[in-house]
Amino acid sequence: MKSRVAGAVPKASADSSLPAQPSAQLHPTEAGDTLARLLVKHVKGSTEQYRRSQEAAQQRLAAFGSPRSGTTLHVEGALHLARPAFLPPDDQGYARLRHLDTGLRMIEAAFPQVSTDIEVCRLTCTMLEGAWRSRALTPPREEEQTSVCACALCRRLPTPPARTLDDYRWRQSAGRPLTVKTWPHRRELDSVLTGGWSWTRQMNDLERDLGHRHRFEDDILVFHEYKRVVDTIDTTRLTRHVEGRLAENFSTNSARALVSGLFAAHKRSVDEYWLQQHDAGSVMLPQTNPLSHSTYSALQMLDCLFWHVAPDTELWQEENLASLLLCRVIDDMADVRADALTGEISNFWLADMPTHTKALYAACAIALVKYGCMPEAHSPMWNTWLMNTTIVWMGLTGRHALWFDGITQGLPPAEECPLCDLQPNPCTGILTHGTTLTIAPRPTAPALSTRTAELSARCRAQFPRAWPLFDAELHAFEALHGPWYGDTDNTWEILRRTYIAAVEASSAAPSPDRARHVQQDAGVVGSERFHTLHDPRTGREDTVLLSYMFGSAHPHFLWNATGYRPTDVAGDWLDG
Questions:
Q1: Cα-based angle 501, 547, 511 (whole degrees, multiple of 5)
Q2: In this structure, are residues 302 and 529 in contact, taking their beta carbons and an 8 Å threshold?
Q3: Which residue intervals make up region (Disordered) (predicted)?
Q4: Average model confidence (pLDDT) across the chain
Q5: 248 partner at 20 to 30 Å CA-CA among 11, 87, 332, 445?
Q6: Residues 543, 533: Cα–Cα separation, whole Å
């Protein structure tokens, strides 16, 4: 999803003169260590401008009496943690790495400006090969026998419902629910993925246009790894277009697209190789994987670092990397059960790490959604809308577990709720020096602004049972955001069919059919209303309120996606 195809780079030939192993190739364990050191070397610390913006946000919240201290939870910097030992690749793995190395050398010869990207790709793929072989051949580990964690977060972990294959029909890349396209006259954009991608870039580009807003030609090759989508895209024509642009008007990001394309092709090939081995009975893949906290974080960097294009000055900024990593965590929260079936290895919830660590990362995602609701969050860095647009896009496509796993019997209590009281946090340092979450009584606006009061009034009239909760969340939202100036009619239509519908369903008797109705109608309203979020006058206001309700409002449908239980469900590979 976050990469490009290798079509713009000639394929490696089956030349017998190639060495048995690329000259720069390390053992997968060494590759993981080297990759972590390389990433740490390039990460840039928080800038003074960013620190000033955070301080301004804190001062504004302090006016509501928001305490600066409370219970704290520390998240260690992932790249400094120990990494596991992996088995070396098999013969086919080395052949794939030779193929990759040939393409990378060709790109590096033509575009030395992306040598760092190339080395990240080479190391990541080596580590990935070792992780897959270790997963396939290492005996499954014993179930975690540690005592149950009693921290404030782990005490609230949900019990996941049982699932069947039919529960994953929503996990498709093409077609519904975005039948209203971003640019209906362009056939290539007939896809859910492109709609969300272009929307995020437009949100970022409104003030500081980097020329990325409509540059789908550089990135459309991302869809090669989504087989149902690629059938509707003229990949050959677009590949030639990218090659021509590279020759005529060099762009570093265009060259990065080629590197990331090789990664996408390699990752797809190694995924499918081991799934085929599993399907043939040659190996038995467990529903866990050997990725640790550190290796997961490093693996995800290439998978999204250059897809979510940022200016070179911000590419390695800690705040940018934190957004990228936590957006992948949100994806994993929704996709974990499907990934357990399809074999996807880069999933946080399947990785070999303590449940408490996963709970901390889910809390980081919520804290970052809250931070993105604050206007101060969006001035210092170009790629600051990513978390907010991601959570809204998932909520309006039926892809997110907001509605899929969020309809639980009864609402969790709001009193002394650590999730409600999570303070907004940009999670800077989540890869390096770590980050500290704070739980303290949340600020609340004393009165609602005019348009937000209208939303509250409509809820009180139409859904009186859900109104007290909805009204309280609007007050909490406006404390973070300030007065809201969005499109009342559009936002109400979305909220009543998503968040409020889910709250109503939670208050009633449990019903899988009711949960599925909310999920499917979320896709329908997304199809009807998604294009309105592109409005430069109100789109950001609507997006930020929806992101708050979908990602951090009580009863925390996002948090309810953290439950995971291995299952013996079997079936096809779906559309992973």
A1: 25
A2: no
A3: 1-28
A4: 81
A5: 11
A6: 7
pLDDT band at 111 (very low <50, low <70, confident <90, very high): confident
Q: List all residues 6 or more positions away from 295 whose beta carbon is below 8 Å from its beta carbon.
A: 32, 83, 84, 127, 131, 351
Q: What is the pLDDT of residues 258-297, one digit of tens each?
A: 787 788 778 888 988 998 898 888 998 888 889 999 999 9
Query: How many other C-beta atoms can be found within 10 angstroms of the C-beta atom of residue 95?
Result: 15
* Helix/strand/coil for 569: coil
Per-residue 3-state assignment (H helix, E strand, C coil) for 141-187 = CCCCCCCCCCCCCHHHCCCCCCCCHHHHCCCCCECCCCCCCCCCCCH
CB 3 within 8 A of CB 261: yes
> 436 by DSSP, 3-state: which?
strand
Q: How far is CA 466 from CA 318, 500, 501, in A?
A: 39, 7, 9
Cα–Cα distance for residue pair 422/120, rounded to 1 Å:
34
pTM: 0.89
**Residue 576 banded pLDDT, cuts 50, 70, 90:** very low
Q: Which ranges of 305-385 would DSSP assign to H, the alpha helix?
A: 318-342, 355-372
Between CA 107 and CA 81 the distance in angstroms is 32
Tens of pLDDT, residue by residue over 200-211, are 877 887 777 766
- Do 257 and 245 contact (CB within 8 A), yes or no? no
pLDDT at position 2:
34
Contact 89, 266 (CB under 8 A): no
CA 424 to chain centre: 18
Dihedral angle, C-alpha 489, 490, 491, 492, nearest 10 °: 50
pLDDT at 11: 30
Residues 236-266: pLDDT tens digits? 665 666 566 666 656 677 677 778 778 877 8
Contact between residue 432 and residue 77 where contact means Cβ atoms under 8 Å apart: yes
pLDDT at position 572, please? 46
Residues 6+ apart with CB under 8 A from 373: 388, 424, 477, 480, 481, 544, 547, 548, 552
Is the dihedral angle over the CA atoms 567, 569, 571, 574 positive or is it negative? negative
State how far the Cα of 27 lies from the Cα of 386, in Å rounded to an integer.
Answer: 35
Q: Band the pLDDT of 227: cuts 50, 70, 90.
A: very low
- For the four alpha carbons of 150, 156, 161 and 166, in that order, the dihedral sign comes to negative
